[in-house]
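cron nightly-structures :: item 1 of 1
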Amino acid sequence: MASKAARKAIYLQKLRSHLKDNNKHLVIVSADNLCVNQIQAIRQGLRPHSSVVMGKNSFMRRSLAIHAPSAGKPAFVGAIPHINGKVGLILTDCDPEEVSETVAGYKLQPLVCSSMDIGMCSLWQWLLAFHMNLLTK
């Protein structure tokens, strides 16, 4: 297994190569509640004309800030504040609206949560309701 620094260098090189390709547009898509199979289906559907990049947000931000201007795409730096939560970057040379429609065309089923998630959710709801009752009294 490669070290952490080696994995980061490989990811940085991969994003740099995607930025240097003939991609004119950047589309940010939400990846909340998607499983790996759904993301893979989207990648395969967009593969002929687009590339999908997923990764840690801080690293995607840093990579865009470093490599977008040197790749001749300084406008991509403006997307950095919008990289929050579970998102993916789609680098494409097609119309961004067409890519958005393609992604929206997939019948995506939300990821099934476990009983632990439901238990934690109800616990937080109970704590919030208890706290709100204390504030109103």
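cron nightly-structures :: done
The chain is about 55% helix and 10% strand.
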